Amino acid sequence: MNTSSRQGGFFLIGGKSKTCDAVFLELAGGTDANIVIIPHASGIPAEAAGAVVESLGTLGARNVTVLTPPRRFIALVAGMLWKLGARRLSRLISDTSIPVGTNAVYISGGDQERLVDKLGPGGLAALQAFNAAGGLIAGTSAGAACMGNHMITGGMKDGVIRVKSLTTGKGLGLLKRISFDTHMKRNRYNRPIVALATLDIDAAFGLDEDTGVHIKDGVAVVYGVGNVWFYRRGVDFKVEFSAGTAHGVDVDVRTAGGVFTV
């Protein structure tokens, strides 16, 4: 596989990517594409990045660069500098700049709150500018869960709807009014419903492992081996937290080749 074309947009994966790594490389532009790995979500970023580099290398990728996440203190200083208007210095000390000529960014998994913290406003601005210029942003697990204004961070391990059962946080806001959940077979099917009931969002995606959606220009195409769930509020949408029930949820489930309008 060697192509000079690239698709842009977002390619979001539900975790444990295998077949989806090949899809990512094709969307990025092929084996000659310039790819940047962002492993900031992981507590062991070198190992996390190494796994992605190895996977893409096996597929033939020739040009893969890894951004080193800043230490927490450096990330805090970078955030302060950004707020004070010293944006170039902020990016410099936190190494959040995306090199010129990059075709695609791949954000690996871990803890999405750590990812948002380490990227900081400078990293977010760099991703926004990169995507606006036609670059592809991919994320797996935490790297997908962080994409909306609001992100699901945990809770509901038993799958039961209860008051304050879902924990959420501020996401990157790259896909603003959509929430994403991953690893759906971990009994997470109700989490997007609670997100719709409690967050200021229009829709939510649930992604199986090694299953992803490529989102561009309002169209989401499914790839991989599992299911993708797309949740929206119906006309009579209502969640009864005291009873643990939900009504009026519009859920569309698709497999590879399926298409959603977002």
Describe the structure.
- This protein is an alpha/beta fold.
- It has a single domain, classed as Rossmann fold, CATH 3.40.50.880.
- 29% of the residues lie in helices and 31% in strands.
- The chain is built from seven helices and 14 strands.
- It has helices at 19-28, 45-58, 72-83, 87-94, 112-132, 142-145, 191-198; strands at 9-13, 34-38, 63-66, 104-107, 136-140, 150-155, 166-170, 178-181, 203-207, 211-216, 219-224, 228-240, 245-254, 259-261.
- The strands form three sheets. The chain has an eight-stranded mixed β-sheet.
- Strand 2 (34-38), helix 2 and strand 3 (63-66) form a beta-alpha-beta unit.
- Helix 3 crosses helix 5 (112-132) and helix 4 (87-94) packs across helix 5 (112-132).
- The protein is globular, with a radius of gyration of 18 Å.
- The chain starts with 8 loop residues before the first strand and ends with a strand.
Give a concise summary.
The chain is an alpha/beta fold. Helix content is 29%, strand content 31%.
Helix-strand blueprint:
Layout: E1 9-13, H1 19-28, E2 34-38, H2 45-58, E3 63-66, H3 72-83, H4 87-94, E4 104-107, H5 112-132, E5 136-140, H6 142-145, E6 150-155, E7 166-170, E8 178-181, H7 191-198, E9 203-207, E10 211-216, E11 219-224, E12 228-240, E13 245-254, E14 259-261
Parallel strand pairs: 1-5, 2-3, 2-4, 4-5, 8-9
Antiparallel strand pairs: 1-10, 6-7, 9-12, 10-11, 11-14, 12-13
